[in-house]
TrEMBL record, chains A, B:
InterPro entries on file: AcCoA-synth-alpha (IPR014089), Acyl-CoA_Synth/Transferase (IPR051538), ATP-grasp (IPR011761), ATP_grasp_subdomain_1 (IPR013815), CoA-bd (IPR003781), Ligase_CoA_dom (IPR043938), NAD(P)-bd_dom_sf (IPR036291), Succ_CoA_lig_flav_dom (IPR032875)
A single GO molecular function term of this UniProt record: metal ion binding
UniProt xrefs under Pfam families: ATP-grasp_5, CoA_binding_2, Ligase_CoA_2, Succ_CoA_lig
Domain ATP-grasp: residue ranges: 493-529
Similarity comment: family membership: In the N-terminal section; belongs to the acetate CoA ligase alpha subunit family.
Name of the protein in its database record: Acyl-CoA synthetase
Taxonomic lineage of the native organism: Bacteria, Pseudomonadati, Thermodesulfobacteriota, Desulfovibrionia, Desulfovibrionales
NCBIfam families assigned to the protein according to its UniProt record, in alphabetical order: AcCoA-syn-alpha
Length: 701, 701
């Protein structure tokens, strides 16, 4: 049996032992047994306790050694000191999976950390699918399995939830009970010693009872695995996650909470984008999206039609629609003609369709039946304010009836409270999201539409990057052999050339004669730069001179630069000067760089040079590997993209040349894990070409 | 009696006549009478109906002519054709105020518009405080007055609400009933023919029963009045408004709804900012803020302390806090020492204070009592997740107890649903905002803190602008006398000089000799520009030459510019060339302009020149008149502000010089209503000074 098979045993175990079961109500070891029984667990449940004979009517096994071999699952609630011995004993009995509820491990410091390491070794060796330690347990409603000490048990449903925080499990469970929302699985991952979010995504992808996956994470420890699994599952089911610890204060709280070290928020955002995971920025959004995705079909286009009995709320909803990536569907003439037949003269036949305050349920029903047929309408938002003549229940019935005959999503805004509540409940129970505000509903439809687009997007092209890896390897090995953490520019350019990256025509000159000869060959004007492995900030020592127009100027510059460098940095080895071609006219400066994220690997960065990156922070990020679409996307994401497209009659820059550099840098980053950071700054780009004018490569120590 | 006195009669009438009262249940004329009776109205209520004898037990008056003179209020529900005659008859009986519920006026087109004009004339002549037409009516709970056909009646409370949309009144009323939120007044303003939001703000400012004012507006028609009243009332009570029709689609819906012409959203934003009105961007925020402001004191600082029984939710709340303008209060050592005395060892004593999942109510109470004393703590957010041992009701009691002893605001996040609901209700009933999500609560606290700062801000200085209005008047009159809608640059500079605005040293030269003489006087290098009233886009005809270094260059440029202009624009009168000093070195270009908004008057605009305004849309707005703080604020608001402060060791520009230009332009705009638009572009600014290098003044036709 592999770990993967054993995960299934966690959710659908045929035999379960509760290690530390207790006859005393109020104790966790009692609650777990009671919860299993109350959930209607159909397999064999064995309480284990050296002192008891019977717990909640079940015969007790005295010690682990007496348990049958090949047990599906053990739930561990013994004190922390007894956890490792228990697991050792269970491993001998060939247990397939375990839930360790007991706390006192990694989260409490060094000693706990060592204990947790021992658990990881044990579980890895014996392929035990272990959830926890330090968790609330897990629930699988379709298997009548409640291996937790949670205070409630949700209805059967199609939403799965896993969480790094037990408290969030508790909160969402209580919310589910309050709102009658059904769940398939609830997993409190605790310290994630063995089973983590990657395993959960992999398992839930093929779980027939789960159609929507929710997750709360504070950090991800196996980034590559997470990305692989997340990218696969989002092709089949939506995954909605809250990632906390996004800000400094949040991250601080995260560290002191479960010892989680929050990765950089940009990397997480890039990871979610890369994999199509939907990020919920707050709890309300998580709940709203869970309900929307689990009940309504995806809208297959941006056109939203609003049907309302009142103008003001219609305007508010239209405002929110225009601020989203949806649009107000333009109704066809035939739709409008059909509505004219039954709508009163003061009704507005255009979107928002205003049925006027006296609209009975029948008017709603007829209108919905007409607009739902319009090919420009991809989703519908029904608005109702509780006017004196509003038929709150009957209108809900009409909406439910229409929704059964269509594959377009319908959302309802009953704007009110007291009088609207029964209608709202009726709609929600029928699987039609109903809220008292229009804005969150529109946000949900927008998110669903974006997810629809994600599912439709064909797999992107990963262009092959021609390269001479061996040549680059030699350069980097040489730098490392000297203990350098920075590759000097002239050698870094070797690396770029090995990857066929466009570099300015450059020569290394050890004397002024050589400098003039190089300049003659390159063509005037040229740039001279100091070449020294110790001097990386060249301008600081006056080590750069531009626009040198003739041999005379080159000769003077050579003397000037080298003399100055020697004077200011007497310890530095001066190899001479680099002679470089000048930037072509009308160039724009861009910056392309990457930083290796601990969790997710190379995180590429793109922005316009100078103040755009430094002051305006107009930067976009993507995780490696970059495909053609990623490269296009990172460029278009920055606000100053318009400047690259050209303003006031300028020609656009050569975008493909930029994309190629981005894609190549991504490959370079993947080829050489010892490069921790690299930056091409500036890359000079005009309508014809892009050239990497300066480069900095930083190696791990 | 003035209109203002008569508004009081609307809310606290001693005698009320219902014109069009009906004995038939279901009719609006019946509902109004029934609503008055159910509200426990204590004055004299007179149904008026030519055919009935008794309605709901009240004796009926047959015709308006038989009503007593000097009636406080009439409620009009007769058919539209009978409204004007009824109002004429009521005016003769010296009625003081009226609510016209009947629709069919401005909102239905030309004929209705004419009827509404007649109503306005009548009410103005007789100083009748008229609400409507086309409205739901009004409610004043503290006066037992329900002059509406609304389907519910709220509890007495301190929130007032006025709305341009009757549907929103209906919705908010139903919400209030559902949530047990009390209101002081509900006013459906309808077409706002007489009583508008300005009157409401003025009246509610001194209404002792109102502590928070909510409003829904689609447009404002009397901008100056609105600003005057809003600025006054926000010094005493918070005003929270939803302005709809913010986007194109929204605005379109607004026009087709009540004939409202939505003003530009920038102008509204500027008007709210100028007056301290809090803008709610969605309904949820409106409701949240209404509850927060009406129940809790203002936080007197940014320090928020989070007290929680669970880590995950604590992190989410800390994230949201860091994204706001609040901060996580740094607890003092003595606070931490005091908490150590009773908190368990695994509790986190730092903010968020984590009491751990088993926290009983007593632990919450003790902790709250300690942190509330910390001077760094200005507001508190209590978090609770329904763990197995959570004491949901007892904790609510503890929070209520502590809140009674403090003047610091307390908000509560009971994260859950089913089990937490009774605690949530208990807290809400006790006036402590309690939500199942932390984020909206933090947003409320932030908004309250910003309002606190607004109340603390001393009145700003309005520097006196030295000017020669007469001189400017002559220039503008001359342009207008020639039917021009554009003031030519040389004359526009006259206007600037009349307002002591810094202009480049300039001379008008009619010949090349005069050009050289002028250049000699100004000092080289100079700029030459074509001077022709018909040529406003000078560069298009090659009419600008810069950096002219000597007399020879000036002479050649003069011939070249004038010849080219004559050839390309043979019909244009060529006055000669302007000779101007060159911009000083190291200047930055900024744009300062204004546009006259229909509702709110001159709307000033500020941004950096070129792409910052055109491509990045990095622009800020303020309404005239501009004080010193406004001028400072508009400059700091743009994202590229850092560029003016100076990057990479640059000196900051002379900010006061920019402020002075802004303040002066605002005065110029107020002095000359015939200027519809003006732009100083570019204004050149460096560390020493700012110069208006080019100017464009557009006059109304």
């Amino acid at each position: 049996m592999s770990l993967k098979d054993n995960i299934h045993a966690l959710f659908a175990p045929k035999t379960v032992a509760v290690i530390g079961a207790s006859a005393a109500p109020g104790k966790v070891g009692h609650t777990v047994v009671a919860n299993m029984l109350e959930a209607g667990y159909k397999g064999t449940l064995i309480p284990v306790n050296p002192k008891a004979d019977e717990i909640l009517g079940l015969p007790v096994t005295k010690k682990i050694e007496d348990l049958p071999e090949g047990l599906d699952m053990a739930v561990i609630v013994v004190p922390v000191a007894a956890v490792v011995p228990s697991m050792e004993a269970l491993a001998k009995r060939k247990v397939r999976s375990a839930v360790i509820i007991t706390a006192g491990f990694k989260e409490v410091g060094k000693e706990g950390y060592a204990l947790e390491q021992r658990l990881i070794e044990l579980c890895t060796e014996h392929e035990i699918a272990m959830v926890g330690p330090n968790c609330l347990g897990l629930i699988s409603t379709h298997d009548n399995n409640n291996a937790s000490f949670a205070a409630g048990y949700p209805e059967k449903g199609s939403i799965a939830f896993f969480s790094q925080s037990g408290a969030l499990c508790t909160a969402i469970l209580d919310w589910a009970l309050g709102e009658n929302v059904g769940f398939s699985k609830f997993v409190s991952l605790g310290n994630k010693a063995v089973i983590n979010e990657g395993n959960m995504l992999e398992y839930l992808r093929t779980d027939p009872n789960t159609s929507v996956i929710l997750g709360y994470i504070e950090n991800v420890e196996h980034g590559a695995d997470f990305i692989e699994q997340a990218a696969k599952v989002t092709q089949e089911k939506p995954v909605i996650m809250i990632k906390s610890g996004t800000t400094t204060a949040g991250a601080k709280a995260a560290s002191s909470h479960t010892g989680a070290i929050a990765g950089s928020d940009q990397a997480y955002t890039a990871a979610f984008r890369k994999t199509g995971v939907i990020r919920a920025n707050d709890m309300a959004t998580l709940f709203d999206l869970a309900q929307a995705f689990s009940t309504q079909p995806l809208p297959e286009g941006p056109g939203l039609c609003i049907v309302t009995n009142s103008g003001g709320p219609g305007i508010l909803a239209a405002d929110a629609t225009e601020k989203s990536s949806l649009n107000m569907a333009r109704l066809s003439n035939s739709t409008i003609e059909r509505m004219k037949e039954f709508l009163p003269p003061y009704a507005s036949l255009y979107n928002p369709v205003d049925l006027i305050g006296d609209a009975p349920a029948e008017r709603y029903r007829k209108t919905l039946e007409v607009v739902i047929d319009d090919p420009q309408v991809h989703s519908i938002l029904v608005l109702l304010t509780p006017t004196a003549s509003a038929e709150i229940i009957e209108t809900a019935e009409a909406i439910i009836e229409v929704s059964k005959k269509t594959k377009k999503p319908i959302f309802v805004n009953y704007m009110g409270g007291q009088r609207t509540r029964p209608g709202q409940k009726m709609l929600t129970d029928a699987g039609i999201p109903c809220s008292i505000y229009p804005e969150p509903l529109i946000k949900s439809i927008e998110t669903m539409y974006n997810y629809y687009l994600w599912r439709q997007t064909p797999a992107q092209e990963y262009p092959e990057v021609r390269r001479n890896r061996q040549k680059a390897r030699l350069v980097i090995n040489e730098a490392r052999s000297k203990g350098a953490t920075e590759v000097v520019e002239f050698q870094a350019q070797e690396v770029l050339r090995a990857y066929n990256l466009p570099t300015p025509n450059t020569g290394l000159a050890r004397s002024s004669d050589e400098a003039v000869a190089a300049a003659d060959k390159i063509g005037y004007p040229v740039v001279l730069k100091i070449a020294s492995p110790q001097i990386s900030h060249k301008s600081d020592v006056g080590g750069v001179k531009v626009n040198l127009a003739d041999a005379e100027a080159v000769r003077n510059a050579f003397f000037d630069i080298t003399a100055r460098a020697q004077r200011m940095r007497p310890e530095a080895y001066i190899a001479g000067c680099l002679v470089q071609e000048m930037a072509p006219k009308g160039c724009k400066e861009i910056i392309i760089g990457f930083k290796r994220d601990d969790q997710f690997g190379p995180l590429l960065m793109f922005g316009l040079g100078g103040i755009y990156v430094e002051i305006l922070k107009d930067i976009a990020f993507r995780l490696a590997p970059l495909g053609r679409d990623d490269a296009k996307g990172i460029i278009r994401e920055i606000k100053s993209y318009m400047l690259l497209k050209g303003v006031r009659g300028e020609q656009p820059v050569n975008f493909q040349a930029i994309e190629d550099i981005l894609i190549t840098m991504s490959e370079l980053a993947l080829d050489f894990p010892e490069i921790v950071e690299a930056e091409f700054n500036p890359v000079l780009v005009n309508a014809e070409k892009a050239v990497v004018a300066d480069v900095r490569i930083t190696l791990s120590a």
